[in-house]
Amino acid sequence: MKNILLVVALLAMSLTAWGQSTGTITGNVLDASGSAIPNVKVTATNVDTNVVNSVQSTGAGVYSIQGLAPGKYRVEAAVAGFKTFRLQEPVVVFTATTSSLDIHMEVGEVTQTVEVSGSATTLQLDTSEVSAEIDSKSLFDLPLQLSSAGSAGTTGRRTIDSFITLTPGVTGDQFYKSINGGQTLSTETIIDGISWQINIVPGLIGTFGPPYEALEEFKVQTTLFPAEYSRGLGVTNFTMKSGTNSFHGNAFDILRNDVLEANSFFANSAGLSRPIVRQNEYGGSIGGPVVIPKVYNGKDKTFFYFAYTGFKRRGGSGLQSNVTLPTPAMKAGDFSDWLDPAKTGAGIPIVIYDPKTTRSDGQGGFVRDPFPGNIIPANRISAVAGRVIPLIPDPELPGLDNNWVSRSKSPVDDWDWSVKIDHTFSARHKLNYSMWIQKDNTSDFGPVPGTLDHGQINDEAGRGVRLNYDFFIRPNLINHLGMGYGRRRSDFFPPASVDKTNDYFQIPAIGTFATANATPNFNIDGITSLGTQWATTLERGNTYNLVDNVSWIKGKHSVKTGIDFRKYQYNTWYPQFGQGIFNFDNRLTSQPNSPDFGILGQPFASFLLGQVQSFNQDRDMSRRGFHNDYYSAFVQDEFKITPKLTLSYGVRFEVPMPLSEQYDRLSALDPNLPNPGAGGRPGALAFAGSGPGHTGKKRFADTHYDWSPRFGVAYQVNEKTVLRAGYGIFHS
Hints:
Number of helices: 8
Shape: elongated
CATH class of the domain at 2-116: Mainly Beta
Number of strands: 42
Helix content: under 10%
Distance between the termini: 26 Å
Strand content: 35-45%
CATH architecture of the domain at 2-116: Sandwich
């Protein structure tokens, strides 16, 4: 009931501003003496679509044309008693950015026209916000290096956030990006005016967003952004391309092929041919007016833009390297080669000590006896190691290190398509719809193929839907309604070649993992990891969005207010290490009281003897369905005190609801709860839900409320210099 009342209260605070991805043209209308002219009709016409937006200047001579899609606009101004003003050069409007243009009018007849050369400035004159824009020309003219397959949350194809690190203050990569030194996974991402937040990895786009060819431009707001933006220590704001009155499109193929590349050093040294690398990123786009012959002509009204990108990669990495596998002698327990410093490079003989002989040295330490000849007897090799050894291939190169050419490879199949529809019902009613669907499969095969392949298969899909409606109630009163949906699926599986489970290895106590094709993972220091890296895991994330905002221009004030509701769902089954992870190092076959304790002994010898240094396993991981909601409202005012001085202030009220689980499968330590298993002493697990031993609540944390005030001032010293200062509290 409290949540319902809260929603009603927040709705009441908002009349229902423009989308967060649109731009604004603003300024003052002045006569020859510099005095303000009220009631001037100022019109901005999109050069490519002929869509018209008109406003009237206020009594203070201030005008603000808001809700403009990024693009170029012709600007005109007209009022009785003055000549019509017409700017020769179009004004460029960027995503979530204000372009400033002061209009100077001359006395005369309205039928007379004064054409003025020059252009608007995109220098932010009216806000304390610090940000940077990357326009469409930069997006497609700057050189772009494809990321490595599987890194930074991508498959290797170009993604819409590939250029984010060009912005001052942004560091990291597409997954672990940080803005102004803030923590990673703490940014807000907006696509076509609607938040694209994934509750498990906030700020991540990667391959889950629309195709690169669908991107018009983007803006990164690094600090002191207005109260209408939330839940991030920085904002990345993307706008998808729209169609125009002219049909236009492209087609492309970006090719990489081993026939055109040199061989790697390691493959050459082993006498191996170049690894096969066949990579293609291909696709195209087309946009224009919606035309159905003899049925409908959408020129000046209805436009579409479609984009498609495909990405395929086959073969191994172009940076093939060598890894280490145990020699046949080592697999038989013979470590006599390790007594020769010339072979090991250790500087001293590496002696293998028998952990079974561990005893006190009488001086507070321990001592062990070495294996005679540095050879482990066959009857001492553990039964589990005996089952693993036949699955390990013999080295193909001489020596104890780097004796196996890695067979690692990452074949990828990835495709992504999007469509955007814009429709103008009239000068007062405008609608746009955008959507995209993406799917990829990355098979990361490990250095050693077969049953002990340490690779993983990552099967993913993403999709998004955006619907934005703008209602120009009056020239100075604009209503914007936006709805969105986003989905992310990310599943992991062992490679198909992994054909054995613990039924074969028979390791006591770990049981049989419930998913087929998951072997225990053996991490042996100095040797490439063997066995399943990542058991089967399933992730599903859904985000539902509703934004409802209003903009009101009055005198020298530009007021915005609105709401932002979000519903997050995260369904998961995550027994990532259910197969069991066994770690081995030299310590259990070294000499405990020796100053060379860190050098003596051998990790593979510890493995043969079954001497596990550490162990990890996820057990009884049932499927979970997590939910949490987010409610917020804001109000913001930009007060243009003088043509050069602007004061901005506002506040955002946020209610991030605590996490709950669909079937109340949550627990937490309560330090005050009597523990029946400890004689009633305080400190026991508390369980969500109703019934005996439960808290009677679905959530453990109490609902808290975040207040986010913003205050800023901007003073224009001259056409090229603006001084900014501000203060704000931001939550992520």
